[in-house]
Write a structure and sequence with these properties.
It is a single chain. Helices cover 50% and strands 16% of the residues. The chain is built from 28 helices and 21 strands. It starts with a helix and ends in a 5-residue tail after the last strand. Bound molecules: manganese (II) ion.
């Protein structure tokens, strides 16, 4: 449909606003180039509309506006933003862009164009796109800033998408883009991305927390004023030009805190932080000293909490963040976080890497970022081609808490928090890691798995006879070490898998059985393996015996897991799948259709009442995960198009396996009380039960069948009532 007159007017208006906000592009030739890019993009996208119905061109204009007014980049970036979807969505090619706008813009647009062509259908398209984006980013960081602006605008306009798409995009944003924005120091953007993602992923929680924030707003404002007034008076005395404000924490960060600490909204004391931004006064010491001067003035008014001083003025975070944070006791004995920043520090905090350009030369930040990009590049170029694995590695590189250690020669190396001597070894060279024997930390011989602390001096002793150990995988913190160890063992493992798969094929041949997926699923549930390769590996290594498999094949494989499914997927509302089973009675699985349609994920063991999502695999099996399961977040990010909406159609119809953990003091009769309660409550549908006592403490693991979360919660609260019991919880629930 052609655009209406009003629509064309609105487009032009939006473009004029963009130009007004592009304060860095005031020269005549800049304006001309931006006009050209707009004309080009307008024609190229004409007459396409967005899902919301508005002309498509609004999107590139909005992205360019974010680039111009929120990240403050220049003309080339604005032009690239205007053109960023042209190659992907229209007939025009990168060559066309090159012809009209030159090499630089063409290369950047290419970096922003999703990959097309043939993919292994198992690998995640998203992961490949991300990989490509990071590759172009290592040439020019502006590409990633535009990509982030693109994502931000898509998030701001997510409402018009279907719910499946919303969940996919929100998952991806939380998994990749928010950490990336954080790593580049774009705090504001990171916070907004997280909050919007959270809103779509957990609507109820989002609404609840934001309405509570609004409700408590007046009380908070009063408190902030009361707290800030004496500080403001002193700052005026000191002749400072300053800004003091109380900023509420983001909805997402409040929710995270509630989850992590198991507290209610009302129990969170630091719902806001006080921020002081000052213009340094010349001739009274450098910014650093002035930050400390202001800090000391504040501690004259309020008592500081000594363990809560965070000095990112003397040693900035790796993403460039500088500020002095402290927690002091405010009126009514309330702890309050205070952040002190100069004007320059504030600009870096808000706009991150982009602001560094302005202050280039002030600090050695540029080289820090270069080092980080170098690490990302190493990850991208590593021969390990598994796309999802790759995302994990990049994520490892996105986290910033760091320690600093020294080589024997006194060179400084930055490693992530919790790094071990092994990380250090692999950081020097893959071969040093692979042949490492032990470490000398501060001249003392120590195991390679020793965790390093800032300031340690580390020397690695190698031997050509040494070999990596498999458990090292779990004892390193860097992506580089992990990738190297994985590569080493993959090589060995692949040979074993090859052997194992031969054994498997021969076995089936001998028994005259055709290979089929259901057969594998049965073996998987009985043998506790996750993938076919795990099965082959076990066979190759001899940890799974041929006799066992032969027995299982003969038995027809009665499943060890008594699982029943009462799920309905959007794509299949077939009434006959909702078979009602006898209440409170465990039936054996007989309906092959139901069995082959759903699979309850082992990682999170969802049960009716839990909020769940489904992921459909290559064989069409829908795997059910809790929507809070990390695996589910990863899947919705990597395979969003395979996410299926599912819901429990009937509670109390079927029983589900669930795990309960118990902790308490060892008291006479405690085991008896536990089993008594379970037997009474659930008529003894226990699968396994295991208790152990140690030094007067009591630990229990129970696997049992329950019907839904109500059942489980009632049981847990009854168990909690037993004398001496200190904790009872559902395993996999808290993370
Ligand atoms: Mn776009």
């Amino acid at each position: 449909m052609d655009f209406t007159k009003e629509e064309i007017e609105k487009v032009n208006e939006a473009f004029e606003t963009l130009k007004k906000k592009a304060t860095k592009s005031r020269k005549k030739e800049d304006i001309e180039r931006i006009d050209q890019a707009f004309d080009f993009a307008y024609k190229a996208h004409y007459p396409v509309r967005r899902k919301s119905g508005e002309p498509y061109i609004f999107h590139p204009i909005a992205v360019a506006e974010i680039i111009a007014s929120e990240i403050l980049l220049g003309t080339t970036s604005i032009i690239t933003a205007l053109l960023h979807d042209v190659v992907e969505d229209t007939e025009y090619t990168t060559e066309d862009i090159r012809q009209f706008f030159g090499d630089k813009v063409a290369t950047m647009v290419d970096g922003l164009t999703k990959m097309s062509g043939v993919f292994d259908h198992r690998s995640s398209l998203q992961a490949e796109n991300f990989r490509k984006m990071l590759l172009s980013m290592s040439d020019d960081v502006r590409v990633i800033l535009i990509k982030l602006a693109d994502r931000l605008h898509n998030m701001r306009t997510l409402e018009s998408m279907t719910e499946n798409k919303q969940l996919k995009i929100a998952g991806e944003t939380l998994f990749l883009y928010a950490p990336l924005a954080h790593r580049l120091g774009l705090y504001q953007m990171k916070t907004e991305l997280e909050d919007i993602s959270f809103k779509y992923r957990h609507r109820d929680d989002y609404e609840r927390i934001s309405s509570k924030l609004i409700e408590s707003n007046e009380k908070r404002t009063n408190f902030i004023n009361k707290f800030s007034l004496p500080i403001a008076a002193k700052l005026t005395d000191m002749n400072y030009d300053f800004d003091i404000s109380g900023r509420p924490k983001s909805v997402y960060s409040i929710w995270q805190k509630m989850q992590k600490k198991g507290v209610t909204f009302e129990q969170i004391y630091d719902l806001f932080a006080i921020r002081i931004i000052f213009t340094p006064i010349e001739g009274t010491g450098d910014e650093k000293e002035q930050c400390y001067k202001i800090y000391s003035m504040i501690t004259d008014i309020y008592r500081p909490r000594p363990d809560r001083l965070r000095d990112w003025v003397n040693s900035p975070k790796a993403n460039g963040y500088e500020a002095l944070h402290s927690t002091v006791m405010g009126p009514n004995g309330k702890w309050v976080e205070v952040q002190i920043r100069s004007q320059r520090m504030n600009e870096i905090a808000e706009r991150g890497f982009a602001a560094h350009w302005k202050y280039k030369g002030h600090h050695d930040q540029e080289s820090e970022l270069d080092k980080w990009l170098e690490k990302i590049r190493e990850t991208i170029e590593s021969p390990d081609a598994d796309a999802l694995q790759f995302l994990d590695d990049v994520k490892l590189n996105l986290y910033t808490a760091e320690i600093m250690v020294f080589t024997p020669k006194g060179d400084l190396k930055k490693l992530p928090l919790n790094s071990t001597a092994l990380d250090f070894a692999y950081d020097i060279h893959t071969e040093v890691g692979n042949q490492a024997l032990y470490a000398e930390i501060n001249h003392k011989s120590m195991p390679l798995t020793t965790k390093l602390n800032s300031g340690d001096q580390v020397r690695i002793i190698t031997s050509s006879k040494a070999q990596p150990k498999e458990e090292w995988m779990y004892q390193v913190a860097t992506a580089k070490a992990k990738a190297a160890i994985r590569a080493y063992f993959n090589k060995i493992r692949n040979n074993v898998i090859e052997d194992g798969s031969q054994i498997y094929l021969n076995l089936l041949k001998k028994q005259n059985i055709k290979i089929n997926e259901k057969l594998f699923m049965r073996l998987r549930d009985n043998l506790g393996v996750k993938t076919k390769n795990d099965l082959f590996y076990g066979l190759g290594k001899g940890t799974i015996s041929i006799t066992d498999i032969r027995k299982l094949l003969k038995r027809g494989g009665a499943p060890k897991w008594m699982r029943f499914w009462a799920l309905k997927s959007d794509s299949n509302t077939d009434e006959q799948n909702q078979i009602a089973f006898d209440k409170k009675k465990i039936l054996s699985i007989s309906d092959e259709d139901i069995q082959s349609q759903f699979h309850i994920a082992n990682c999170c063991n969802p049960i009716p009442g839990d909020s769940v999502i489904g992921y459909q695999d290559d064989e069409g099996i829908v795997h059910i995960h809790k929507s809070t399961c990390p695996q589910a977040v990863k899947l919705s990010s990597g395979f969003g198009d395979r996410i299926v909406k599912v819901k429990w159609t009937s509670r109390k119809a079927m029983a589900f396996l669930s795990n309960i953990r118990l902790e308490g003091l060892d008291q006479p009769g405690i085991v008896h009380s536990v089993t008594g309660i379970i037997a009474k409550e659930l008529k003894a549908n226990i699968r396994t039960i295991h208790f152990e006592t140690l030094d007067g403490t009591f630990n229990g693991w129970i696997e049992l069948f329950v019907y839904d979360t109500n059942d489980l919660n009632r049981l847990i609260s009854n168990l909690k009532g037993i004398k001496g019991m200190s904790r009872v919880y559902r395993q996999h629930e808290s993370n």
